[in-house]
Amino acid sequence: MLLCISDVLDYAELKEIRRLIGGGKFKDGKLTAGYRAKLVKNNLQLDKDAPGAKEVKSIVVAGLKRNRTFQDTALPRTIRPPLISRYQEGMNYGWHVDDALMAGDPKVRSDLSITVFLNDPADYDGGQLIISSPFGEQEVKLPAGAAVVYPSATLHQVAPVTEGERLAAVTWARSYVRDAAQREMLADLLAVQKKLAALAPDEAETDLAFKTYSNLLRMWSE
């Protein structure tokens, strides 16, 4: 499932993020890439020790944690500290798949990849996130503050930026439910459950929907 979510971050948060990273030190993105990804990664990333870096990451994670759509769909158990990436003219990130286990102690399995866009699409040409899927290549370029969520197991790339600068926060989540198809079914059932609760709160079928969702989540979560 590929999910686009608007307004993960609001105007004030985006303004604060851009202030914090404006004078920050950026390093070669290859330093945080896996063995094969290093061959195709050409961007810059905010130094984890740069002034304001921790604050920026906290703002992004807080936005994801409070977003109901993200929480209901991703069922996140762990959200990794995001990488703040900068793509200037001529930079790109070729086809790759994200590491299955993200660095840390302990390492965290990546079930879902998340890109939160930090500047407006009008600020740069190119720079689309392109995700390979059974339905063909899906191109994503969203307004500032919006996010796209997709399975970490998919091949994806960032197209070359031909003009301007692209800013984004990239992170990964381990879900309580590992299987992508099961997560999608739970999200669909949750939507049905909420609708029934609004339209027929006293009906037995509404109770069955709540029961089924809870028991499937109990069965599939880890």
How would you characterize the overall build of this protein?
The chain is α+β, with helices and mostly antiparallel strands and 222 residues long. It folds into two domains: 3-175, q2cbj1_9rhob like domain (Jelly Rolls, Sandwich), CATH 2.60.120.620; 180-220. It is 32% helix and 32% strand. The strands form four sheets. Strands 1, 2, 4, 5, 6, 10, 14 and 17 form an eight-stranded antiparallel sheet that branches. A five-stranded antiparallel sheet has the order 3-7-15-12-13, with no helix packed on it. The protein has a two-stranded antiparallel sheet with strand order 8-9. Strand 12 and strand 13 form a beta hairpin. The radius of gyration is 18 Å and the shape is globular.
Overall 3D form: globular
Give the proportion of residues in helices.
25-40%
Number of domains: 2
Q: What is the level 1 CATH name of the largest domain?
A: Mainly Beta
Q: Largest sheet, if any? A: 8 strands, antiparallel
Mean pLDDT: 95
The helix tally amounts to 5
How would you classify the helix and strand content by structural class?
Answer: alpha+beta
**How does CATH name the architecture of the largest domain?**
Sandwich
Multimeric state = single chain
Low-confidence stretches: none
**Element-by-element helix/strand order:** EHEEEHHEEEEEEEEEEEEEHH
Distance between the termini: 20 Å
What is the CA-based Rg, rounded? Answer: 18 Å
Instruction: Please name the fourth-level CATH homologous superfamily of the largest domain.
Output: q2cbj1_9rhob like domain
How many strand segments? Answer: 17
